[in-house]
Design brief:
- By secondary structure, the protein is an alpha/beta fold.
- It has two domains: 2-15 and 92-234, HAD superfamily/HAD-like (Rossmann fold); 18-87.
- Helix content is 49%, strand content 11%.
- It is built from ten helices and seven strands.
- Strand 6, helix 9 and strand 7 (214-216) form a beta-alpha-beta unit.
């Protein structure tokens, strides 16, 4: 049995400026003024780290960082929930993503979940609104709610999957599918193989140079993806 851990943003879905709007709203409510700068797009960093970067880039004093970061992080899922209609209207399931998820879900020796920089509740909102949660066992995934250090999430997901399925998961039978350099680093440092997908802001060349085991231009070829997943799980 192989464990397949999907990244969410820019791998499976694209929600445009909604995340940035949520950061803007939460910052304004916590600090009392709108932010002058927002987190960079498509980096793959976890939400807690993005929040701290948001605060420091907007000149928040160091002695206020922890309290404000905790407040903003706590608010993010509810503020995203308030944008469900916007996600349903403007959110995009990326080309081939639904078919790829369905193909993996149908394959008996593959167990499919997520490793994501999203907080758990935020991940559930995005995936459920866009009707992708049906293909994933979100109970065994790992989220920024579990740790702000993304490589640590791999072991958390492996342990949850092992408890659910009675199978030990390690680098030998765990594969991350993601679009960013952070996804590659997460696999390398956390203990998983990586299939890079150039559906975000990182090119095929950059994903290859970073050390992804394989790189796809997109998720349009489900048969090829299944072959790669089977191969990586047998190496």
């Amino acid at each position: 049995m192989n464990l397949v851990l999907w990244d969410i943003d820019r791998t499976l879905v694209y929600t445009g400026n909604i995340d940035r709007q949520v950061y803007r709203e939460a910052f304004t409510a916590a600090v009392g003024r709108p932010p002058e700068s927002l987190p960079a797009r498509g980096t793959g960093v976890t939400m807690p780290l993005a929040v701290r970067a948001l605060l420091t880039s907007n000149s928040i004093p160091a002695d206020c960082l922890d309290a404000l970061a905790d407040r903003i992080i706590e608010e993010l899922p509810d503020r995203l929930e308030a944008h469900r209609e916007s996600i349903a209207r403007d959110g995009i399931v990326l080309p081939g993503a639904r078919e790829a998820l369905a193909a993996v879900h149908r394959t008996r020796h593959l167990v499919s979940s997520v490793v994501t920089g999203n907080l758990r509740e935020s991940a559930v909102v995005k995936l459920s609104v866009l009707d992708l949660d049906r293909y994933l066992d979100l109970s065994i995934g790992a989220y920024a709610s579990d740790s702000a250090h993304r490589p640590s999430l791999v072991r958390i997901a492996q342990q949850r999957a092992a408890s659910a399925h009675g199978v030990a998961f390690s680098q030998a039978n765990t594969v991350i599918i993601g679009d960013s350099l952070q996804d590659v680093i997460t696999g390398q440092q956390g203990g998983a193989r990586v299939i890079g997908v150039a559906s975000g802001t990182t090119s095929v060349q950059q994903l290859n140079e970073a050390g992804a085991d394989h790189v796809l231009p997109d998720l349009m070829d489900s048969d090829r993806l299944l072959r790669l997943l089977t191969h990586l799980g047998n190496v």
